[in-house]
Design goal:
By secondary structure, this protein is mainly beta. Helices cover 2% and strands 48% of the residues.
Amino acid sequence: MKNFLIVACILFLSFDCHEKEEIQPDEIKSELKHISYIKSNSVRSVAAKDKIVYIVGSGELASADISDPYNPQILSKVPLEGVGYDIELKGDYAFVASRMGGIHVFDIKNPSSIRYINTYDSLEQATGIAINGNILICCNRTVGVEIVDISNPGKPLFIGKIKVSEAQGAKCRGNYAYIGEHYKKAMTILDISNPSNPKVVKSVNVPGNAWGVAIKGGYAYVAHGHGGHGVSVIDIKNPENAKVVTSYNIPVVNETRSPDCWEVQISGNYLFFANGYDGVYVFDISHPEKLELVTSYLDVDYAHDLAITKDMIILADYKNGCQLISAHGIAGEQHIDTGIQPKIVRSDYKPYIQEESMVKIFSRGQIHSCFLDDQYIYMACGTEGLEIVDIVDPRNVIAKFKTDGTAYDVVVSGTIAYLSCGGKGLHAIDLSDIHNPRLIKTIGAGRFLNDMWINHDRIILRTDTWATTGCVDISDKFNPKISVKDLSIDHFMLQVSDDVFSENYFAAANSKSLLVLKYAKNPLSLEKIAVIQEPTNGVAVKDHYIYRTSRSKSLHVYNAENPSNPHEVYSEKLTTSSSQSEKLSIEGNQLYLTTDRSVMIYDLAQADKPKFIKEIVVPGIEGNYIYGRIKSRNNKLYVCAGYSGLWIIENK
């Protein structure tokens, strides 16, 4: 009888062995177990609300029901422009940072039918975001942090900005924002009590490249990677005297330079750390000054981001998709610590300001770039589309043309304007009746078209969010054609010369090199002719000379009579208090160079030896380096400064 009972018990216990594992509340707290995957490509961020997960994947935002975590169900998918990188939820809305695509806003009231609402046109590459009430903090990689009013989620509005080093992750609580600064290896605290004028309070160094931040009580928890994978605890009870109280470094097994991302979230007294290729780590933070590693989970492709819900970790596992991980007794409700909301005060909108020898034009959108002819200024104004004003009296608005996408750049040939609008394509707009612009055709939708440079019957443009470069044939102006096969560049394209030399050769500024490009026999293809491995921010050409600026605040001149072998003939350090040199342009015998605070003017009477003339300070230009090209006409300079407007400067 005894043997029979033993056998019966064994049979009973093994009867359901092929069924899914049931979650038992009395499991060991420290044990993390895989539950399931929700398949999606290149998952970079996740967020959870009730039993719904929102997943930021490659080119899409998806929602999934995880009521049964062993059998999650995709509910809805919507496309994303740009590269989705971070997601934050606010009530019935989701805000997705999408690098150069800006911040997309979605209505998630019905998770089975996510609905796109609008896009906020960020200053640069929106990477990390944080929300406190109606304030949104946006980290813009290398140009700093901007603060956005989301009182009306359908129409986010720029409030203010501040330059810091490479901002990647953020949290905000009360009157302070806490920013993970990547290469600076620091968490920087900003005073945002006046959101239109944020100020740096303190930067606190951490052992590795900082990214994600979590806040609880009097402490900030900063995730960091390269050079020191782990988490640092910073005492922020007095922000001006913030200091690291402890750091926990995790031995690195799979160090790599790409992708970068380390994130942290808090639930109860536990801190959850997504550590890239090396998995997920959980710390007990009952005593913040003494982190205690509780457990870890290593079966990941790349732990990019995570969200916490009851008994579960929801992991953005990059190539694997969204991974659900059992975390009983550890994971509960995700901690959110926001405090009071800073007071939002908005000044009256003024479309035109006169300041001594300068005039500033504003748009309700971000003025990325402009094109000039003898009569008009054509402006690419972000989410406001194309705006045209009188060049003699810029207060006189001639026309506005609203586009579906974000207008990044504009060029004009005859009576046709070409407007690049990111994923919404290149719009050809008939200006025969200048007061009533009319859309003729859209091409290239689905790619991400932005910066453009025009030469006769052809346009060079950037065709993605990084560095792929293509062509548009506009020999038939009413029927433009775009290249199918584009030229891939090694790193971020920053500028192409507005003029050519030796007929069809262009110079291109690349963040890792100076390039010489040529139109191939096919008018829709480009060839790389020469590559000089010198990081380049700005480029211009005159005759057979190439002018380039470098990050080290210097100006260089190359002789390119032989385009396949340009050689340097001149260089000099810039005599300026600015921290960085940026874009170049040439009109006649004058070379114009923007910095992060000014325009520098050089005489090119002797083309191979520029002679410095003067420097003009331009308020608000800082942080607009992607589109901050100068245009010049009739002794006036036109400098696009994004949300700071378009400066028109007398050049006497």
